[in-house]
Amino acid sequence: MSDGLEDVVAAETVLSEVDGKKGVLIIRGRSLDELAGRTRFEDVTRLLWDGFFDDLPDDLTAPLAAARAEVFGEVAALDTGLLDRTPVEAMRALTARLADGDDLATALRLAAAPAVFTAAVVRAQAGEAPVRPDPSLGHSADILQMLTGRPPEKGHANALDTYLVTVSDHGLNASTFAARVIASTRAGLGSAVLGGISALKGPLHGGAPGPVIEMLDGIAHPANARAWLEAAIARGDRLMGFGHRVYRVRDPRADALKGAVRRLSEGSNTGRLAFAEAVEAAALAILREKKPDRPLDTNVEFYTALLLEALGLPPSAFTCVFAMGRVAGWIAHAREQVAGGRLIRPQSRYVGPWPKQAA
Ligand code: CMC
């Protein structure tokens, strides 16, 4: 048995390929380099969903905008009980209010849900009223406007699109596998997406970028990096933003996002990027020294943290922003599973006690 199902192939997919040895990510026949920075969230969603809905329009911009407006109606259900929860728990609870189903309208509502609900939760937790979606804006620009109440600054919508496209799909990661298992029971896209959000929120998967900011804040100055990181490893902590189940080299998504941070910080705040690069170099050196048996390199979450911070998002909501992008992949995988896959039902090996034989 393979611990953690490492190396087990559990699905065939046309959606994405993760080459962990070469550090390459392909989404529906396009390399990450082709897509990141050049494609909007609507377009990568169209690419991922192609062939999985009979009535898929050529352009998802207007249908996704209409879905944002529709799910905004659920924001009224955001009560004080939910506001005490973490943003991802509150966003998940609002998403659970949407009707389940398998059609395109359900898929669009679910794709809009993390964006609309996260913006409303973040604002409500800061004591601010929600901002209505604006159908004249693209998805990323609207997310930023719903968060801040202002039109996005120059370059910000493109940077957020770069992020959402970069994380839109990634092979059979834990949340996508969870979504496919649920879809295989024919429970519906809503159930699959809720399972995806739940698996994503763990710190070993999509919950890492918030702690990356805590790490950077704890280190505070490049001169402290080595001592801080060595102490963390000595305590047995994982360095957040490093290591990956599949990549044995640098995660290609890290550089796509680092490029976006660099473009965003041109002329201003370049100090934060230089500081992060110094921490990254120190962390890689320490991981090579202390964990020589396992190649541990930078993963997507390290520069996710920098990018989302530069966009003004609170670290407590970073996992929700991951869900805004990955939801496109979860839905595509759920549809692919239903179209061609059987019920996923593996076996376990019993290692517990046996009942005593009757004398
Ligand atoms: N810092 C220190 N040691 C590490 C790290 C790390 N970030 N990652 C792995 N190791 C060590 C680990 O301690 C273990 O050594 P030992 O047994 O001596 O303690 C060895 O590497 C193998 O670890 P593993 O947990 O068996 O490997 P895995 O394939 O399950 O780990 C991982 C993958 C992402 C869970 C892990 O690298 C990790 O915890 N990283 C930090 C959290 C993080 O950045 N998560 C985001 C992942 S990328 C987003 C995504 O695609 O989901």
**General form:** globular
Bound heterogens, unique? carboxymethyl coenzyme *A
Largest sheet: 3 strands, antiparallel
How is the largest sheet built, in terms of strand order? 1-2-3
Q: What percentage of residues falls in helices of 4 or more residues? A: 40-55%
Sequence-ordered SSE layout with sheet pairings:
Blueprint: E1 16-19, E2 24-27, E3 30-31, H1 32-35, H2 41-49, H3 61-72, H4 80-83, H5 87-95, H6 104-125, H7 139-148, H8 156-166, H9 174-184, H10 189-200, H11 209-219, H12 225-234, H13 252-264, H14 270-290, H15 300-310, H16 318-340
Antiparallel strand pairs: 1-2, 2-3
Helix pairs in contact: 2-16, 3-6, 5-6, 6-7, 6-16, 7-8, 8-13, 8-16, 9-10, 9-16, 10-16, 11-15, 12-14, 13-15
The structure holds carboxymethyl coenzyme *A.
Describe this structure in words.
By secondary structure, the protein is mainly alpha-helical. Helix content is 54%, strand content 3%. It has helices at residues 32-35, 41-49, 61-72, 80-83, 87-95, 104-125, 139-148, 156-166, 174-184, 189-200, 209-219, 225-234, 252-264, 270-290, 300-310, 318-340; strands at 16-19, 24-27, 30-31. Strands 1-2-3 form a three-stranded antiparallel sheet. The longest helix is centred in the last third of the chain and has 23 residues, at 318-340. It is globular, with a radius of gyration of 21 Å. The chain starts with 15 loop residues before the first strand and ends in a 19-residue tail after the last helix. The structure holds carboxymethyl coenzyme *A. Residues 4, 170, 173, 204-206, 208, 238-245, 291, 294, 296, 299-301 line the site of carboxymethyl coenzyme *A.
